[in-house]
């Protein structure tokens, strides 16, 4: 073992502390004396189940008369505690890897003594302290990886002052919480040329970092959630960079995005959640992932996307059309896009998710869209689309799970072909100008009566439930909803709707529906929200509604319902009278209207009540007086006398006490009598 220079025990399921696992019970001093570790150049114990602190190991290694250790890899274990200052004694160390453990505290200032250090990997720990300025001494340092640590404090140019070899710097946090602040002098010129810069969820702004001006070798730039509220300066766009990743999302960056950027093959661009304006950017086919959502891009959708960016596989905001055979998701929600959907979208045969809600798109849906027969989610809500709801949606999109055409200008009747969508579990056609009857075949929407496969979902959706719109993403597959509200629908509520046993929301409010509420409404055991308000429904409220145990939002107001309001179970908790208001013929709680036969019996006179109450109370007290006498006497007598009879010592003590008290009383009386006589004799003189 003395001549061992390379030891790799990674991925061996080692457990316990490092020295226990490594030394197998050998004492630390013996390890040092034997030189078992002192000749090591490489020690790799990563991807095990080691725990505890590393102080003892570092003390062993740093205590050698001469240490040759160049690589120390303890990553992916369960090691914890603070990093010891003795780390700075490993002067020959070139690579230090402590990633994915549970270390806490600060990076020790002694790190600045590792003058040969080239790689520092401390990512995925719980280090909540500061970064020492001594880090800036390490002129040979090439890579710094500090990501996924809640580091605090302020980083200045002093932390990078002598890092002349630095190529990669990463402090990347998945959480949006910012705890580390970069306060770099804008006049500072870095001594390095970075190729890889990843700073996320750190305070880098509010100005765009000027010190990037001379970083002409960058291939990866991540400045996400960096608190930058500025326009990107022109010099950045002119750096002639060839980028593999550009992520400047979740800031307040503004201005126009030029088409001059150059990208390496299979690159990713994220400009989302900013204030960029103007036309959509158009880059080369090397860009495969493009995220432009939540900005202020405007103008028509460029048809050239299919020609210029033909390798796109993931596009958030603008994933377009011709020549994009692998495109499966389009998310353009919440922008200011205008114009019509191009018919060229029909070429997207692999499209699964089309989400373009809350824009200013108009016109009729292009018939070519029916060629996208594999669509799972079609969300076009919050636009100005017009015309009839196309029948081909039901005929050509058999896998549709979500159909949301809410808040548009669609008119005409609801096509019965939609009833063939057996997988559909969210149908939202609310806030349009639809008329005619609700198709009687809605009971065939078996997707609202069966369990859903959660693996078929991506993205997020606004769903109106419980009287408000909420955003659903990871649990979207659990939502079963039918919303046809705010239209001009007429006729009766079809009985078939009661077949949809997993339906959670049924909203048919603000229409012209007539007839009665289906008698079998109680079969919708999953129903949480039922809104039938502002129609012309008549008849009684079915008693089965009381069996809807999940119901927590109910609105039947502004109809012509009559009779007694059912009571019991869940309806007892829905005691807001506004639920039933403007139904003049309804009666019973929670309304104030009385039903026939509900008149209260006359109340007795108050004087009679008081007299009867007093008599009852007196009789009650007398009875309990006599009842309590017997037990009270028994307990009192035997509690004292019984004890004296049984216990000789207590009996003697008791009579001794009585005798002493008697003697004390006689003495006190005698003294007082003598004192009184003396006073009387003195008074007679």
What does this structure look like?
With about 675 residues, the chain is α/β, with parallel strands linked by helices. Helix 7 crosses helix 8 (about 650-685). The chain is flat and about 100 Å long. Belongs to the RLP family. It is found in: Cell membrane. It is a single-pass type I membrane protein. Keywords: Cell membrane, Glycoprotein, Leucine-rich repeat, Membrane, Receptor, Repeat, Signal, Transmembrane, Transmembrane helix.
Outline of the structure:
By secondary structure, the chain is α/β, with parallel strands linked by helices. Helix content is 16%, strand content 23%.
The first-level CATH class of the domain at 1-151 is given as: Alpha Beta
Please tally the helical runs, counting DSSP H or I stretches of 4 or more residues: 8
How many beta-strand runs?
A: 43
**Integer-rounded radius of gyration:** 41 Å
Level of helix content?
10-25%
CATH topology of the domain at 1-151: Leucine-rich repeat, LRR (right-handed beta-alpha superhelix)
Largest sheet: 22 strands, parallel
Large-scale geometry: flat
Assembly state of the chains shown: single chain
CATH architecture of the domain at 1-151: Alpha-Beta Horseshoe
Query: pLDDT below 50 for ≥5 consecutive residues: which ranges?
Result: 30-35, 317-323, 454-461
Structural class: alpha/beta
* Average pLDDT reading: 83
CATH superfamily of the domain at 1-151: Ribonuclease Inhibitor
End-to-end C-alpha gap: 122 Å
The amount of beta strand, in percent, is 15-25%
Domain Disease resistance R13L4/SHOC-2-like LRR: 28-217
Main location: membrane
Region (Disordered): 589-615
Keywords: Cell membrane, Glycoprotein, Leucine-rich repeat, Membrane, Receptor, Repeat, Signal, Transmembrane, Transmembrane helix
């Amino acid at each position: 073992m003395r001549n061992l220079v390379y030891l790799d025990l990674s991925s061996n399921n080692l457990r316990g502390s490092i020295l226990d696992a490594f030394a197998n019970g050998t004492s630390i001093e013996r390890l040092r004396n034997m030189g078992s570790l002192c000749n090591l150049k490489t020690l790799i114990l990563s991807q095990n189940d080691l725990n505890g602190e590393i102080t003892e190991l570092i003390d062993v290694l740093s205590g050698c008369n001469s240490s040759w250790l160049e690589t120390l890899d303890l990553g992916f274990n369960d090691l914890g505690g603070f990093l010891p200052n003795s780390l700075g004694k490993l002067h020959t160390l070139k690579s230090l890897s402590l990633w994915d453990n549970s270390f806490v505290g600060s990076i020790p200032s002694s790190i600045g003594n590792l003058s040969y250090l080239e790689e520092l990997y401390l990512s995925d720990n719980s280090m909540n302290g500061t970064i020492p300025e001594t880090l800036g001494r390490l002129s040979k340092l090439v890579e710094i990886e500090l990501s996924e640590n809640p580091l605090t404090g302020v980083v200045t140019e002093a932390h990078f002052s002598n890092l002349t070899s630095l190529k990669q710097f990463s402090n990347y946090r998945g959480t949006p919480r910012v705890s580390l602040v970069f306060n770099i002098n804008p006049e500072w010129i870095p001594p390095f040329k970075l190729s890889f810069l990843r700073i996320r969820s750190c305070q880098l702004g509010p100005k765009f970092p000027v010190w990037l001006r001379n970083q002409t070798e960058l291939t990866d730039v991540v400045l996400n959630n960096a608190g930058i509220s500025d326009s990107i300066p022109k010099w950045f766009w002119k750096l002639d960079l060839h980028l593999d990743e550009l992520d400047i999302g979740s800031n307040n960056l503004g201005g126009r995005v030029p088409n001059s950027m150059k990208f390496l093959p299979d690159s990713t661009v994220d400009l989302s959640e900013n204030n960029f304006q103007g036309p959509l950017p158009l880059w080369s086919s090397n860009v495969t992932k493009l995220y432009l959502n939540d900005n202020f891009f405007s103008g028509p959708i460029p048809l050239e996307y299919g020609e210029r960016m033909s390798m796109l596989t993931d596009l958030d905001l603008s994933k377009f059309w011709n020549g994009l055979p692998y495109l499966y998701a389009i998310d353009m929600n919440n922008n200011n896009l205008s114009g019509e959907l191009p018919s060229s979208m029909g070429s997207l045969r692999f499209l699964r998710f089309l989400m373009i809600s809350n824009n200013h798109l108009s016109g009729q849906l292009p018939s070519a869209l029916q060629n996208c027969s594999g669509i799972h989610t079609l969300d076009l809500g919050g636009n100005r689309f017009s015309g009839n709801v196309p029948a081909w949606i039901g005929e050509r999109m058999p896998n549709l799970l979500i159909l949301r055409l809410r808040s548009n200008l669609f008119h005409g009747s609801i096509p019965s072909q939609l009833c063939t969508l057996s997988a559909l579990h969210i149908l939202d056609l609310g806030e349009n100008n639809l008329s005619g009857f609700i198709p009687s075949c809605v009971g065939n929407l078996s997707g609202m009566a069966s369990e859903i496969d959660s693996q078929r979902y991506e993205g997020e959706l606004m769903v109106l439930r419980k009287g408000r719109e909420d955003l659903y993403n990871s649990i979207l597959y659990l939502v079963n909803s039918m919303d046809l509200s705010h239209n001009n629908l007429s006729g009766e509520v079809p009985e078939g709707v009661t077949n949809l046993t997993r339906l959670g929301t049924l909203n048919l409010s603000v229409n012209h529906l007539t007839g009665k509420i289906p008698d079998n409404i109680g079969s919708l055991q999953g129903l949480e929200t039922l809104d039938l308000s502002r129609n012309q429904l008549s008849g009684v409220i079915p008693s089965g509604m009381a069996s809807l145990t999940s119901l927590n939002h109910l609105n039947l107001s502004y109809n012509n319902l009559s009779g007694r309001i059912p009571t019991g179970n869940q309806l007892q908790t829905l005691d807001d009278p506004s639920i039933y208001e403007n139904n003049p013929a309804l009666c019973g709680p929670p309304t104030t209207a009385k039903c026939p036969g509900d008149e209260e019996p006359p109340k007795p006179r108050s004087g009679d009540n008081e007299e009867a109450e007093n008599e009852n109370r007196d009789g009650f007290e007398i009875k309990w007086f006599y009842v309590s006498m017997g037990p009270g006497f028994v307990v009192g007598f035997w509690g004292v006398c019984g004890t004296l009879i049984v216990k000789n010592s207590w009996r003697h003590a008791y009579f001794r006490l009585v005798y002493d008290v008697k003697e004390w009383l006689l003495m006190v009386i005698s003294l007082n009598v003598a004192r009184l006589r003396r006073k009387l004799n003195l008074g007679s003189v």
